[in-house]
Amino acid sequence: MKVVERELTVKIDPGLQARPAAKFVQEANRFSAEIFLEKGGKQVNAKSIMGVMSLAIGMNEVVGIQADGPDEDEAIEKLSQFITAES
Amino acid sequence: MIKVQTRDLLEQFHLELIGGKDGLHREIVTSDISRPGMEMAGYFKYYPKERLQLMGRTELSFLIDLPNNEMRQLMDNLCTDVTPGIVITRGQDVPQGLIDVADEAGVPLMRSLHKTTRVISRLTNYLETRFAPTTAVHGVLVDVYGVGVLITGKSGIGKSETALELVKRGHRLVADDNVEIRQEDYDTLIGNPPNLIEYLLEIRGLGIINVMTLFGAGAVRNYKRISLVVHLETWEENKQYDRLGLDEDRMKIMDVDLPKAIIPVRPGRNLSVIIEVAAMNFRLKRMGVNTAEEFSERLNSVFDDVDSTEIE
């Protein structure tokens, strides 16, 4: 089974706070692929606001993003852009 | 990775530090505990130096009865550069000679007032918990009639909404959306919420709500043993769902096999009631009442009766 994976550094200032996290999750929910976000060995479902917020992702931290499903490439592309966009 | 330092033990067990405080940062790498008995007799071939050492009355009195230089030599052998610490039990007095050796080697020497066996079991429990393998799953953990039910399923299927209704019916929320699970022993899974989202529940359309402030302290739990998995999925016309309950689905989390029920979701199906019943049925089975099997046996006995009348 093919899974798309990417590792990136968060550039959103000052990090994935409540609002950006909600936006991120909304974005993730537009895709049908299963998407996971990982930080420090902890992996959560990127479509769940509580999961994403429980990671408390700060700026300049390295996170892994993983997608599996029909629109996985597009999902990774969009979500990577989202968290690496310098504001 | 989890790191346990000797310092943590001091705080956790209110141990008294009597020597070797330079070594408080030492790391404990195993939950095994050693009672150096053979070592007291000078046999160090298999000395488990990386373990926490525990000295009860027997070990310490033997050591103290030795001539001063031998005692110091043995203590020096015990205090290797990886030994995380030595715990003296029963609040015994420790000769200054031993404290000096511990100070020099930088191996924390601690004292507990309790009996040796008690200290061993409590230390082991604590260390086992700290070293337990952990994972996280996407799901909601609820305590329903004392049964830890892990509700899983795709995003948006209604896990949190079901949990909310269960809370409203008097059950307890443990974790929403993201459950941290640690394995204790070989057959026990304990789930708890990540610190940041403790007591919180996300309901689409409402946002994040705090279950504890809304429903009171009785509506939440900090951790719960997981006994049952309920998987919610959208009803598929062509899929065969369990109609009897004779065969149990299982789900494996780490090394533990849990019973799992797949519940198809369709408008009009009251999920919280179904989950309540699933939890009660689980308890019933554990008490030895298996309705599906009993029914099947009853049915079989009807066949047997028919067979025997035919023979007559």
TrEMBL record, chain A:
Pfam family, one: PTS-HPr
Protein name: HPr family phosphocarrier protein
Chain ranges of the HPr domain: 3-87
Native species: Allobacillus halotolerans
Record-stated family: Belongs to the HPr family.
Automatic annotation (TrEMBL), chain B:
List of residues binding Mg(2+): S160, E202
Region annotated Important for the catalytic mechanism of dephosphorylation, chain positions: 264-269
Domain HPr kinase/phosphorylase C-terminal as annotated: residue spans: 130-298
InterPro entries linked to this entry: HPr(Ser)_kin/Pase (IPR003755), Hpr_kin/Pase_C (IPR011104), Hpr_kin/Pase_Hpr_N (IPR011126), P-loop_NTPase (IPR027417), Ser_kin/Pase_Hpr-like_N_sf (IPR028979)
Active site per UniProt: H138, K159, D177, R243
EC number(s) stated in the UniProt entry for this protein: 2.7.11.-, 2.7.4.-
Keywords from the UniProt entry: ATP-binding, Carbohydrate metabolism, Kinase, Magnesium, Metal-binding, Multifunctional enzyme, Nucleotide-binding, Serine/threonine-protein kinase, Transferase
SUPFAM superfamilies in alphabetical order: HprK N-terminal domain-like, PEP carboxykinase-like
Important for the catalytic mechanism of both phosphorylation and dephosphorylation: annotated span: 201-210
Subunit structure: Homohexamer.
UniProt note: domains: The Walker A ATP-binding motif also binds Pi and PPi.
Family (UniProt): Belongs to the HPrK/P family.
Its biological purpose: Catalyzes the ATP- as well as the pyrophosphate-dependent phosphorylation of a specific serine residue in HPr, a phosphocarrier protein of the phosphoenolpyruvate-dependent sugar phosphotransferase system (PTS). HprK/P also catalyzes the pyrophosphate-producing, inorganic phosphate-dependent dephosphorylation (phosphorolysis) of seryl-phosphorylated HPr (P-Ser-HPr).
Name of the protein described by the UniProt record: HPr kinase/phosphorylase
Species name: Allobacillus halotolerans
Gene for this chain: hprK
